[in-house]
Amino acid sequence: MSEGSTLLSWVIWLPILAGLLVLATGSDRNAQFARLIALIGAGANFLMSIPLFTGFNRLTSDMQFVEKASWIETFNVSYHLGVDGISVLFIILTTFTTLLVVIAGWKVIEKKVAQYMAAFLIMSGLMIGVFSALDAVLFYVFWEAMLIPMFIAIGVWGGPNRVYAAVKFFLYTLLGSLLMLVAFIYLYHKSGGSFSILDYHSIQLDLDVQVLLFIAFFTAFAVKVPMFPVHTWLPDAHVEAPTGGSVVLAAIMLKLGAYGFLRFSLPILPDASHALSGFMITLSLIAVVYIGLVALAQSDMKKLIAYSSISHMGFVTLGFFLFSDLGMEGALVQMISHGFISAAMFLCVGVMYDRMHSREISDYGGVVNTMPKFAAFFMLFAMANSGLPGTSGFVGEFMVILAALKVNFWYGFLAATTLIFGAAYTLWMYKRVVFGPVANTHVEHLTDITKREILVLGLLAVAVLGMGLYPLPFTEVMHASVNNLLAHVAQSKL
User: Please, is 466 exposed, middle or buried when counting C-beta atoms within 10 Å of its C-beta (0-12, 13-18, 19+)?
Assistant: First the structure.
């Protein structure tokens, strides 16, 4: 669609307005009303985002659904939005995940209900803004603003060490982003006074300058992914965050870091991307192998899944820096798939935590005897997390491993170890929690999942199986944009 469409603005601002409306309901006396407004807001936004996908022209790499209006004229800053085949899928993932978080928190959150729902609705709009922004200042505003609702969600509804985890999360991600702002200001001067991200693609820069700018962007994006060795904030944030916070953090917020590499590092700094590709691939493979082994040693289910997320995101950065369409599309498929699977895994842990108030693997055992329906869903998601063919977890990993083998046998070999380690830590956890005789009286008194929980897990199961059995609709959308990006990067190859 050409300029003139306001669909993207609606998808960004509707959840933010709904969040403010939910906040206006005030105290917990109106909790049910707050939940209802949140559900209507999240549901309407998901439905509104679907035309972005159905109306998307898959034959072009141009930005679509473009909107542009002057914002801060003095510095040539504009309210400039648009999506391509890379970003459109993440907007759908964000609206879908937000709807699930609202449904999942329906009965679980009993205090400050309006504030909880509002935090996730506002965060949803801000994250969609990051995926849509085509102006560097607008991108930066959305990028920083979305930290605030997540900081509040962890700090207010989190576990015993929530304040420590919230501050650590905020400081890591904020400090990483400051160098990105410096890079934007430099590019603004180099481009002759433009903050348009698309204008930066044509700037000619020396390799030394590109490397410095790459490091500036790297600090912001690597922390968010998070890449080894700046990953230590994530397990703390996940363990202390409420279930909804963990779901959004794993399903969407980590993807923003990887998205930054595609939107800035690769197209604007192609020479530096090639020069530092070995460094990026090394860090990615350390994440896949080493963090996979770290996950194996965890006794807390949330911590195990958090480390699993870091390992799986290693595949994403690996795929990007192989500079092949198979690797990049595989990485993008892995991002979407990981959104579904990690959300499902954290929701499954949330279901058990709501009943037993423990995340320790040793406190469980024999859950299948009292929660057979839940055990079936959990089994599907555990298999998907292990990369079982037929699930979405297999598709992206297989594509990236194949692309890595074409570049270097050892890259492919080390990446493929995730199929062993991933299965080891996920299925070993599943066996200890779900199988065997009933371990204690707490497990004996567990009740199986409710209709609301079946709805949430069922929607994710459909997504995981649908993408695993028929990934074409996802790869088809991104194909033109990926090829265009790779052609641009290849032209400037050293």
Answer: middle
Say whether pTM exceeds 0.85.
yes
Question: Coil, strand or helix: which one is 371?
Answer: coil
- Would you give the DSSP letter of residue 263? I
Question: What number is the average pLDDT over the span 380-401?
Answer: 90
Strand partners, 196: 135
CA distance 400 to 384: 16
Question: Residue 266 corresponds to which tokens in the numbers above?
Answer: 């690769």
> Residue 466: is its pLDDT beyond 50?
yes
- Give the SS3 label for residue 425: helix
Cα gap 411→351, rounded to integer Å: 38
Are the C-beta atoms of 48 and 14 separated by less than 8 Å? yes
Q: Which amino acid is at 376?
A: A
Q: Rounded CA gap, 17 and 118, in Å?
A: 9
Where helices occur in 263-300 by DSSP H, the ranges are 266-268, 270-275, 277-296
Percentage of the chain surpassing pLDDT 90? Answer: 20
Instruction: Name the E strands within 11-85.
Output: 64-72, 77-83
Residue linked to tokens 């994006």 = 221
Collapsing DSSP to helix, strand or coil, 77 comes out as strand
Contacts of 120 (CB under 8 A, 6+ apart): 19, 38, 98, 101, 102, 105, 149, 153, 244, 248
Phi, psi of 416 (to 5 degrees): -70, -15
